[in-house]
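Both lines are given unchanged directly below:

***
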Amino acid sequence: MRPLDSPSKDAREAPARAAPPQGTQDLLFEAARRLRRCEAALARVFEERGFAEVIPPSIEAAEVFAESAGGAADALRAVDRHGHLLALRADFTAQVARIAATRLSGISPLRLYYRGSVVRESAAGSGVPRERLQAGCELVGEAGPEADAEMLALAAASLFALGIAPGAARIAVGTVGYFSALIAAAGASHRLARALTDAIDRKDLPGLTLLCTREVPPGKARDALLMLAQPPRPQAEATALLSRAQQLAPGPAASSALQRLTGVLELAQARNLGAELEVDLGEVRGLGYYTGLVFNLYAAGAPRAVGGGGRYDTLLGRFGDPRPAVGFSLDLDALVPLARPA
């Protein structure tokens, strides 16, 4: 007998207009049940840790996403009949920042969580769906390394709640602050910063070497940039890497960023996360959005990261609120097929 949530012959032969838009999907029956079970398991973990749910609207003023991780360029936008530029939700974090700054400004710290879908334009052939199912948490109003460690611990607990075994979970941790300090010390233009970011993100050491040789003056900043293309190191083996990075720090900002990262790692280790911690100084995504800690979540069986987050201390300032914040999101499209929630 054909499974209820598999397409029928008639459905496969239906006209194109009857199919969901490219990059989206219908979730039927067991697929829908699996998603809801995972969402419920995550909600339990979030609420046990003191987080309260918020449900932002699916459309926003497009400017809300202007400096979000998703970016305004990726948002699907339209002008309404009153001439307002609107966008489908491209990033939950920007919406939570707006809510915290405008509706909950007198409450601190804030622990908020969300679940739902985001919609972004994806590069052709990227394999990334246009509509993505997510859940995540944001901690607003706490600037210390303890808050960073708290969110790393919650991210690990979230994976375990979905039935991901501790031995199958990894968290790669870095700091955008170090890279930002290197860029400033090198006097890099916006164009060069983008090119360096791309090369480091791809772990392209030959390309990075060529770029640095041509455009970065000799010195500590150049040597430190070249080191960022190295693969992640398990925390137990990262001492030498962090020590070398500290030796090459071209100024107080770079040194401070590394000290902060080391402190967060020590606090996270004291919490006995269960997941394997790695150090990746080449995690440089979100430059201009993230301000310190950044991390990616990995689970055995998934070809790419199943979540990630970091510290974004300037985002709420766009809405008139100077409070710092740190958070993460989970990619439920990647996690639900792997999940075995209790």
About this structure: The first strand starts at residue 52 and ends at 53. The chain has two domains: 1-143+320-342, 166-312. The first helix runs from residue 9 to 12.
